[in-house]
Amino acid sequence: MERFFAAILERDVERALSYVGRIGQGVPYGEAAAFLHPDAIADGWDVLEVGEADESPGGETSVRVEIGDGQDREVGLMELTDYGGEWNLVDPFVTVAITLSPFTYLQVNDRVVTREPYLGDLPSSFVTEYKLLPGRYQFFGDLAGTDPGRESTQLLLPRFRHGGSVPVAPPLLSPTPAMEAALQQEINELLDDCAEFAVPQPPGCPFATDLFLGYGDDGYVENIHDIEWTVVEYPVVRLVDVEGEDRRFGLSVEIEDPGLVQLSATAWDDDLDTEGIEMTDFTADCAVSGERLYAWLGPDGTPQIVMLRGTPVGSGAVLPEPMTGTCEYEPEGGA
Amino acid sequence: MTGWSRRRRWWVTGAALVGFVAGAGGLVTAVALRPDSPEDVVREYLEVLEAGDAEAAREYAEAMPEFDAASDELLVAEAMSRDWRITQVVRRHNERDNPAAVDVTITAADGTAGQGRFQLDRGEDGWTIRNPLIKLDLLLLPLKFAEFNGVTAEASEVWLFPGAYQAYTSVSDLFTFSPSTFVAVPQDISGGSLVEYYQPRIGFADGFDSVLHEQITAWIEDCAASTDPFPDGCPFTAGNPEYREIRVGRDRYLPLADTTVTWEVVSQPAVRLKQGQGAFEVLLVRPGEMRISGTAAEPLDHEPEDFRGTCTVLMDGVLVTMPRAGELAFHVGETTGWYACSGHIDW
To answer: Is residue A64 part of a domain?
Structure first.
């Protein structure tokens, strides 16, 4: 046990792993082992105490370990096996689950690994659990240029016999003015691109018209065609980082001022009170909705807008469905 | 037999070394050079791969019982790049010694790295690698051919040697792939499966739009050349092909035995593509417009009469794949275009 920790403190990952046997889950590799790396091992902590081996009635041998960083201490039990006179560590890793994060990168101490934004439609191979060596950890570094504070550092030891993973999420982030400005520019570009679609519900766009667009008490236009979208006024957006499940999709994009997108089209006007169905050219005022808009941040703090294809239904799944209309139509001279 | 071949080659190498060392006045026996550890076997295999010796590398592969389960067309020297190096070979400790796990990291010239795990069994002939190859499943890709390091295969499951690969370079003027380098490393097969799914994010290069537009135009013009009211595999039809009922505007007609129609393209639809699972999805930017004219009978009146109308091409339910480099294939859905001519746009 002492040799294992000595190897970690010397950042000699391979030597540390050589004390881990095949019994248990063995040494992880590939994606899950991305942070079994010298750069993911921090300074500033030490082993304070390694206790005597203790054998449980079930035959499992464990050792009490205490680590500290001068300010905090962490105590844990680690399991060993004696196989033919040879002592090996059993699963001496901390499993961390990183799901609720609005970043396009994962950072564990000084080790950075990039990843694609999660859109709720990726296959289950999307890795979110990583194995770490015991030690002192700071996740997500300086949070894309913002100050994470002292509380972002923690001491971690394996959860002997308690299983499960340690959920890790970056602390709530306060977006900087530069992030907000970059986001505003991105949303403006998105809207300009969306305006090129001559369809009622431009895909991946934060505005849409219902296919039956009501007006007045019971009038509506339908069979909308010859559509043209015009961005009259860009919305004012801001980035908001809020606790909760949605954080796995990114930072929320809050619409401070919905802006104005105008829909010009031809449709059947179906006003039951008057002449019945007739063809009409009309324009409607449409707002920009932030309901499905999220932004992911790269290590340099640059936001990348993603729009979900539907509504989150929990557990990271998204139910694809068309956008609810954001347009309001009032015929000239009233309904 | 792989083990025999491997040993034979090692003996040859050993003999050459003995000659060299003996010539220098040393005394070394070939037996001492026999690769008797799992790491040695893996290192030797990796050296064969680094040298691009496909024939020797295949000898390791043919020991796999699953070898027939995927295409071996990429197990050739031309598909083996030299743009990578081994940055880690380490045997993981096992209390029971057998089987053995040897972790390797392959790092491509552009820095893309992948860590994999070779698993070895010890038999009478020494250690044998159980997973010398990577079985890559390409079904999730919209491209329906395999192409790695410039070698193509018409297969959706291929074997690859460990190494670094540039995928689909023949269509680099059309697509971008992220990550751009695929590092093939062996996967743990304890769970029984060694299939890896290849699903990079596909972007569109500058040249793609014109190719897409050109091929959609050709497809629709080809469809428009049909005289069938319900042209097969086309993004528009005159109505429900199952009931063989023509719907033009608000009128309905039954086609006569010899009914032919004339289709005319007024405007082509404008579309973009988006990567989906196994195909590109079509995003409609602007509907296309067709004209239809012909002769048919109204349901209760069997006298033929002329009809004409306008149809909208929405590309609803159309999926796009690329079966061969640069060639797009368009696949219609079950109800694609059924209401194209009904006068009511079924967005």
So the answer is: yes
Our count of domains for chain A comes to: 2
Of A129, A146, A167, which one is at a domain's C-terminal end?
Answer: A167
Contacts of A214 (CB under 8 A, 6+ apart): A220, A329
Binary contact (A29, B115; C-beta < 8 A): yes
Asked whether residue A91 falls in the same domain as residue A24, the answer is: yes
Amino acid of residue B346: D
Please tell me which of the candidates A23, A26, A198 has its beta carbon nearest to residue B286.
Answer: A198
Q: Do A86 and B103 touch (CB under 8 A)?
A: no
Confidence at residue B9, expressed as pLDDT on a 0 to 100 scale: 43
Residues A183 and A304 in one domain: yes
What's chain A's Rg over C-alpha atoms?
28
Give one DSSP letter per residue of A175-214, joined into a string. Answer: --HHHHHHHHHHHHHHHHHHTT--SSS-TT-S----SSEE
Residue A193 lies in a domain: yes
Final residue in a domain of this structure, among A167, A187, A217: A167
Q: Is B130 helix (H, G, I), strand (E, B) or coil?
A: coil
Residue range of the domain that includes A194: 177-328
Q: Is residue A334 part of a domain?
A: no
Task: Kindly determine whether residue B93 and residue A224, on different chains, have CB atoms separated by under 8 Å.
Answer: no
**A172 falls within a domain:** no
Segments of chain B scoring below 70 in pLDDT: 1-35
- ipTM exceeds 0.85: yes
Q: Which amino acid is residue B237, in one-letter code?
A: T
CB contact under 8 A, B93 and A198: no
Q: Is the peptide bond before B179 cis (omega within 30 degrees of 0)?
A: yes
Residues of chain A with Cβ-Cβ distance to B199 below 8 Å are 123
The residue with tokens 């809020």 is A242
Q: State the Cα–Cα distance between residues B296 and B306, nearest whole angstrom.
A: 7
Q: Note whether A122 and A268 are same-domain residues.
A: no
Helix B38-50 with B2-23: angle, nearest 10 deg: 90
The pLDDT tens digits for B193-241 are: 778 889 899 999 999 999 999 999 999 999 999 999 999 999 999 998 8
Residues found in chain B: 347
Dihedral of CA A134/A140/A145/A146: which sign? negative
Residue A84 belongs to domain with CATH number: 3.10.450
Nearest to B183 by CA among B259, B116, B261: B116
